[in-house]
Write a structure and sequence with these properties.
single chain, 12 helices, 2 domains, 271 residues, 3 strands, mainly alpha
């Protein structure tokens, strides 16, 4: 069964543009509404949408492809405000109608403001009280949303600072670093492998800032000594920055603190 869009709160132009439940329409729907030449759509879209410096891609509009008459054609999702802006800028007959409509709306708003000024003091006070109540409700909603975010952050802090572990230090460190890399809160754009490398690099840099430790040099020295001592290839391969940190009584607690700091900074909760 098709979803039925509630148009009771929409303006006539929003209804004509087919604004969906997410407040979006398409460039082709707008173009057809404005009754402009179909053959000029691509050029119009390039000039008015893609090259429009006042509206941003992925925020105000997003391109996508459709099949039309057997051909692959580009279309655009537009937010309602952008669609209204484009309709008022159009030089078509429908664009003139759109401009007149919004001018009429503005004039009605001005008339309403004048009418309010002519109300009795009691009615003006009532209007003021209603408006204040609306603002308070919006502020309470905003504060509730902020409180929810703070609670989530607090959960991450509690998990990072109070969490007990029964596993080995290396296993715990690897699990926490992997959780940070996989988190959507970690601000790194790249492949999965690159994100994991970036998290580890950041953790070692944070450790070095707390206590300069030359991890690369220490790893090479450890491998050299192990090789001279006749250690197996597997044993030598197992010598890493993390194993060097684990074996150092001064670095180990500092690195644990670094990982907990990163978990808090990126709001990552690890069970």
């Amino acid at each position: 069964m098709d979803n039925i869009i509630n148009t009771s709160n929409q303006t006539p132009i929003e209804i004509a543009l087919g604004i969906d439940e997410n407040g979006m329409t398409t460039a082709r729907a707008l173009y057809e509404f404005l009754e402009m030449p179909p053959q000029n759509f691509a050029r119009w879209a390039k000039t008015n949408i893609e090259d429009n410096e006042f509206y941003d891609e992925n925020t105000d509009w997003k391109g996508f492809f459709i099949m039309k008459n057997g051909n692959k054609c580009k279309d655009y999702q537009l937010i309602t405000d952008f669609a209204k802006h484009l309709s008022m800028e159009s030089h078509s007959a429908k664009g003139k109608i759109a401009r007149k409509y919004f001018v009429d709306i503005e004039n009605k708003a001005k008339e309403l403001a004048i009418d309010r000024a002519q109300l009795s003091p009691q009615m003006q006070l009532m209007n003021m009280l209603v408006e204040n109540m609306s603002r308070q409700e919006l502020e309470q909603k905003r504060q509730a949303e902020e409180l929810a975010v703070l609670k989530e952050n607090q959960k991450a802090i509690n998990a990072a600072m109070l969490g007990q572990r029964e596993e080995s230090f290396k296993s715990w460190a690897n699990r926490c670093l992997s959780a940070i890399a996989e988190s959507g809160n970690y601000p790194y754009i790249g492949s999965r492998e690159e994100r994991h490398r970036a998290v580890r690099a950041e953790s070692y840099e944070r450790l070095n800032q707390k206590k300069p430790c030359r991890l690369n040099q220490r790893v090479e020295s450890e491998k050299g000594r192990a090789s001279i001592a006749g250690a197996s290839a597997a044993r030598i391969k197992g010598i890493t920055k993390l194993s060097v940190i684990e074996s150092d009584k001064a670095l180990k607690p500092l690195y644990e603190a670094v990982i907990r700091e990163m978990m808090i900074a990126y709001c990552v909760e690890v069970a």
